[in-house]
Amino acid sequence: MNVRFGIVGCSRVARRRFLPALHSSKAGKFLFAGSRNKEKAKQYALEFHAEKHGSYEDVLADERVDAVYISTPPLSHAEWVLKAANAHKHIICEKPAFPDYGTAREATSVCRAKGVRLVENYAFKYHPQHQIAKTLAKNKLGEFSRIEIKYLYPFPPDGDIRLKPELGGGVFHDSVGYVAATAMFHFEKPPVSVWCRQKIDQGKNIDTHVSFRLDFGAGVVAEGEVEMGAKEYASRYVLYGKSGELEVCRAFAIDSDKPAELVLRVGGSEEKIVVNPASQFQLLIEDFCKELESRSSHKDFEADLLLQHKVMEAAARSIKEKRVVALSEIF
Q: Which of 100, 168, 124 minimizes the C-alpha distance to 309?
């Protein structure tokens, strides 16, 4: 039986990414569109063939809704995660799910107590190119010990929530989480310590640039930069090993109908590897639904979320206190 979804927040990412993926999925069904704007809810329901539309509260009150996708402004995520959990709805929440580690820990505890699953939507990890890159790096690069990550993009259009400090705007909350998620995906463990620096655009009153270094011990590091308002667009990372390097050219935001490209450089030669198009959102939805329908849990989404927020808390503390912060300090 399909998992029946409602959405809490008719956002741009819901319309461009989540709902097309849900519509294409055989595992989920779009049942209820929820928005503060009733006309927008109606528009989304018509466009993506939902049976119902209404307010956020209407979505949570509907007994037929099994799970919700939350894409409200970031600083309101915690409120609606808690309300959804208390309404016994499973949850996919847009990133960042929470503003800090303490809130993440509290919300996760409530979800576990209510018997609902919670996943933070770092859908990029589901694109097959990353597992292919990990396997290639292990087989071709020897022991890889460094990741360099760059995520650079222009300013979003006026009115975008990423430009509104009161709604949690800025590059740190919007994009730095990709760094932690990428590094932990490849090194398969949390960092020992985090160093971060931030630049503030005084005119816009938001942070627009973050440089970082995650130290995993024994010479294993992830470093690079994230920038909003850059002149160029870059969404890539490079894995460095004893024998060469492997570049993932379009890492975080890739259209479901576009192939991905990896570049392997070993011994002075260069090889391009093309990965077939894939919908990372659809793959996440289907994995989530599979977990819900399974009699026993195979993945600990909640532990992954908590670790992600622990690293982000260390990064935020590093920025505030201008020092390297050990992950063991966050509890």
A: 100
